[in-house]
Amino acid sequence: MTTLAKAKTGTGKTMTDQTDEITRLNYRSNQITDSIMKRSTILSLAIAFLSTPAFGYDQADLDKLKAINQCIDCKLTEAPLYGVNLSNVNMRAANLDFANLERAILREANLVFASLRGAYLIGAELRYANFSEGNLSGANFLNANLTGAVMLGADLRGANMTGANMKEVNLRQANLERAILRGATLDFADLKGAKFCNTIMPNGDTAIKDC
Fold first, then answer.
1. Of 1, 70, 107, 145, which residue has the fewest beta carbons closer than 10 angstroms?
2. How far apart are CA 83 and CA 100, in angstroms?
3. pTM score, whole prediction
4. Any long-range contacts for 162-165 (C-beta under 8 Å, 24+ apart)?
5. Residue 69 in contact with residue 89, Cβ under 8 Å?
6. Is 14 helix (H, G, I), strand (E, B) or coil?
């Protein structure tokens, strides 16, 4: 065994030396592989973080809204406004996407051109509020009171208005495609020019006249 261990190869190195060198090379190779994998993971996390859209409301805008009952063109995405009293508020062109306005009081509110995509307005008091030309797609108006509200030209695609009180609502030119109106009250509502496509009507029927 001693003779074999000390036997020299054609490179002038013993077999033991050669084995040690191979071991060192394998160790170094593993280190390099680990380093590459760690850097790749860090890079992937950085890319994911940078590509994630920025959500959330602007605290300064929220404070302004509560202080003076006005916030035009404000960023209030996902704002926590459960049960707040914002009667006669002016939030023209505000971004309220996915905001929680459940049971909020927005009587006679100015929400013209406002975006409320996916907003929660369950049980909200919205009498005579003005949502004209607003984006209300996917908003949840379950059991909300929309008596006399103005929704002229509003985008209500996929909105849930189940059980909502919509007496005398102005829905002229509104897009009600895929909206759910099951059990809603539409007495004296103005529906001239409104679009109905796969819309669930108050009686449960599906309207497809504009598909």
1. 1
2. 9
3. 0.73
4. none
5. yes
6. strand
